[in-house]
Amino acid sequence: MNSVLDELTAISRAILAPERGLPDLIPQAQALRDIFEELAHFRIDHGRDIGAGETRLDCGLAISPTLAAMCLREPFRTLAFIRGLAEAIGDALRPERAVRVLYAGCGPYALLAVPLMTVFPREQVTFTLLDIHQECLDSALALIDILGLAGHVAGGVCADATRYEIPADGKPDVIVSETMAVCLRNEPQVSIARHLLAQAPEARMVPRSVSVEACLLNGDREHVLVPPDHLGEIPAPERDRIHLGKLFALDAAAIRSWRDMDGDRLPAGRVRIPDPVEGRYRPYLLTRIVVYGNHRLHDYDCSLTVPQPLRGKPQLTGGVALQFHYKLGPRPQLEYEVQG
Ligand SMILES: C[S@@+](CC[C@H](N)C(=O)[O-])C[C@H]1O[C@@H](n2cnc3c(N)ncnc32)[C@H](O)[C@@H]1O
Question: Computed over its alpha carbons, how large is the radius of gyration of the chain?
Answer without folding.
Answer: 21
